[in-house]
UniProtKB/TrEMBL annotation:
This is Regulatory P domain-containing protein. Residues 27-78 are annotated as: Disordered.
Length: 466
């Protein structure tokens, strides 16, 4: 493994102290200003850093798919969103779009460059990623749906690398997987490797793909523990994969070493959820349905989110992977937090979903696509005391949206990613399309730090779901 910088104890204490001073006292522990319980020690207030504003929004014309994961190209000039072509036959949704490419040259006016038609019937897509080292390529996942005969895993799409263009893309190759197709994928930001995840209850499911020849990709593996790996992120700083296992023979957080060979990852650390308590009530941390693990690029911590449906929502855990007593070989949870308006899920879905991490000056912020919570921000400068701040209801142009498929109304935000090159966030709402946001470490606004009243109307959202 490559050496990673380690903070001294004095540095860690200093950073935590500064963060605590910046956060202020907030409202009482365990009680938000809206009455919803929270495991966050301090609630956001006017002095908490973490602000967001809408830059732009686009909801494509015509029949709309169910939008899923949104991401950006490394240079921030393109956005991409995967999708389900339809929820089920009862919706009447005739869309055949698997992926939508957005031109982000003007962040205030994202425009649709193309909508990719499905290369195979009876599949859906939960994920897409851009190539980490070359312009003009993206990778969209395929997962078997009802009626599918062969488990296709991923398509390689040329939209400018070769003969394809943003307006006329070319599918260069499709890949099969052993089981059900690829649920999610992830690109290596410094190598021509993409990782597919094939759902497997009792066998490995992480499949590295050599894409040095985009028209002729080659698979290795599968690797990792037996179980359903839901999502992974490639960490080029520590040369590891951060993997979230959501079901099957193993549930929890796994770290795979790729320092020797990115195409042959080896497990070096894990945290087993089976050894931990479940969620029992809103406000009490639990460990269930591990959904996504994402690393902090500047400190030895990772944020691991849980996705629970049913009565109780899942939250996010901060893991020490070298910041304190934890390590890559022995990751240790040190705190837990929820989305800002967390509550029981009898009305809406308040579990957390796909998140990303950014640095602004001395402050470290997290952005999340939080289903009914919309797009929201948290301050994680003090890893032991994360604080949710501003949020934005991603319900723009709801009157034009297709609400015939689950969940039926917006916000239903799927994901949030941060583009460091152009310093903006890109977010995808299942119902209302693609969004761009500014995010920075200025003090949060609003009575409880939740943002201006124009950002979010909780009562309106609750009424929609009731």
């Amino acid at each position: 493994m490559s050496d990673t910088p380690r903070r001294t104890l004095l540095q860690r204490i200093g950073i935590a102290g500064l963060a605590t001073a910046a956060l202020g006292t907030g409202t009482a522990a365990g009680q938000g200003s809206n009455g919803a319980s929270s495991s966050t020690p301090d609630q956001a207030n006017a002095r908490t850093c973490g602000r967001t504003d809408l830059l732009g929004h686009t909801l494509p014309e015509g029949e709309k798919p169910r939008y899923t994961f949104g991401t950006t190209s490394p240079d921030g000039m393109w956005g991409g969103v995967s999708s389900f072509p339809r929820s089920d036959d009862s919706t009447g949704n005739d869309s055949t779009v698997v992926a939508t490419l957005y031109d982000l040259s003007d962040l205030e006016q994202p425009t649709v460059a193309h909508e990719l038609e499905w290369p195979v019937e009876n599949h859906r897509s939960n994920h897409m990623r851009f190539d980490g080292t070359r312009d003009g390529l993206y990778y969209v996942t395929h997962e078997m749906d009802e009626g599918a005969e062969e488990p296709l895993g991923m398509s390689v799409v040329d939209f400018g690398w070769g003969e394809g263009t943003p307006e006329e893309p070319e599918v260069l190759a499709t890949l099969e997987t052993p089981n059900t197709g690829s649920h999610t994928n992830a690109e290596h930001p410094e190598d021509t490797v993409v990782y597919m995840i094939d759902k497997a209850e009792s066998e490995p499911g992480v499949i590295p793909v050599d894409v040095s020849e985009p028209g002729d990709p080659e698979q290795t593996g599968p690797f990792g523990p037996d179980g359903f790996c839901h999502a992974l992120e490639v960490d080029p700083i520590r040369e590891v994969l951060h993997c979230a296992y959501i079901g099957g023979d193993f549930v929890g957080y796994v770290i795979l070493d790729i320092s020797e060979d990115p195409l042959h990852p080896e497990e070096i650390g894990r945290f087993d959820y089976d050894d931990q308590p479940d969620y029992t009530e809103v406000g009490e941390p639990g460990f269930e349905d591990c959904h996504q693990a994402h690393f902090d690029p500047n400190r030895d911590i990772a944020i691991v989110g849980d996705e629970l449906f049913g009565e109780l929502p899942g939250g996010k855990h901060v893991f020490d992977i070298g910041w304190g007593e934890g390590s890559l070989e022995d990751p240790q949870p040190i705190s837990h937090f929820y989305s800002p308006d967390v509550r029981e899920q009898d009305v809406g879905v308040w579990t957390t979903h796909f998140h990303d991490i950014l640095q602004d000056g001395d402050e470290t912020l997290l952005v999340d696509g939080g289903y009914s919570q919309g797009f929201w921000v948290a301050n994680i400068t003090d890893p032991c005391n994360p604080v949710a701040t501003e949020r934005f209801a991603t319900d723009c142009e709801l009157e034009r949206a297709d609400t015939r498929h689950s969940p039926g109304t917006a916000p239903y935000n799927w994901s949030a990613v941060w583009n460091d090159e152009r310093e903006f966030a890109f977010s995808s709402d299942t119902i209302t399309g693609a969004y761009t946001f500014s995010v920075d470490a200025r003090p949060a606004r609003g009575e409880d730090g939740g943002g201006p009243g124009s950002h979010y109307d909780l009562e309106t959202i609750l009424e929609r779901y009731s």
